[in-house]
Specification:
By secondary structure, the protein is of the alpha+beta class. The protein has a single domain, classed as 2-Layer Sandwich (Creatine Kinase, Chain A, domain 2), CATH 3.30.590. The protein has eight helices and eight strands, in the order βαββαββααααββαβα. Strands 1, 2, 3, 4, 5, 6, 7 and 8 form an eight-stranded mixed β-sheet that branches. A hairpin with a 5-residue loop joins strand 2 and strand 3 (81-90). Helix 4 crosses helix 8 (230-242). The chain is globular and about 50 Å long. The two termini are 39 Å apart. Its EC number is 6.3.1.2. Pfam families: Gln-synt_C (PF00120). Keywords: ATP-binding, Ligase, Nucleotide-binding. Belongs to the glutamine synthetase family.
Amino acid sequence: MQQAAAHYPWFGMEQEYLIVDRDEHPLGWPKHGYPAPQGKYYCGVGADRAFGREVVETHYRACLHAGINIFGSNGEVTPGQWEFQIGTCEGIEMGDQLWMARYILHRVAEMFGVCISLDPKPRVTMGEWNGAGCHTNFSTIEMRKANGITAIFEAMKGLEKTHTEAMKVYDPCGGADNLRRLTGRHETSEADKFSWGIANRACSIRIPRQVADEAQGYLEDRRPSSNCDPYLVTGMIVKSILLNGHSSPSPKKTKLIVA
């Protein structure tokens, strides 16, 4: 990360998670069946749509008191699924802040007698339910300047070049977890194919509509799983875009001289 410091790399991570009971059953789901199809739960309001909001809001306040740079939370597509956002953070601070926010979330859930699942695709949600990711927003000082869209487009080359390698570090199981989630359905790309687009949630990398319109801003890497290691993810993004796919400068060749 220090090798890329001159580019002032900024990150924001969107942590999705599922609130479950101690039997790993999603909060708000019938014990012997399934809830109504997804669609009405995203940013939903009401006891039939939002399950566990007290956990979410308590977590938000606890993060503020702890000095965490949290900037939002919302109900997600699958019932019982929520998201919080951390950022903007520069460099390695992104990993520090997300790990602490996760810890606080687990402690808050404990207070309410429930648990938090960071599994990107729990068994009970297999089928027509969205999985959970940790979408990672990234920008450099070049991207944030006027006409920074040029630098964003250029970044796609490095991200495509390292796609296979990135998929191995974007979840803790060497890519196996993401295979359950990145199927090309439910607002995801396909795990074995790199793609990017503007305002397209079915791509590996999404350029937000506002960024395209203003020709400057950031990109969103939608590949990381909800249980990813943020240090590895942010390091991989920097390596792909700013270090030409290398984690450290190539060593200089030296000649051994024997006296």
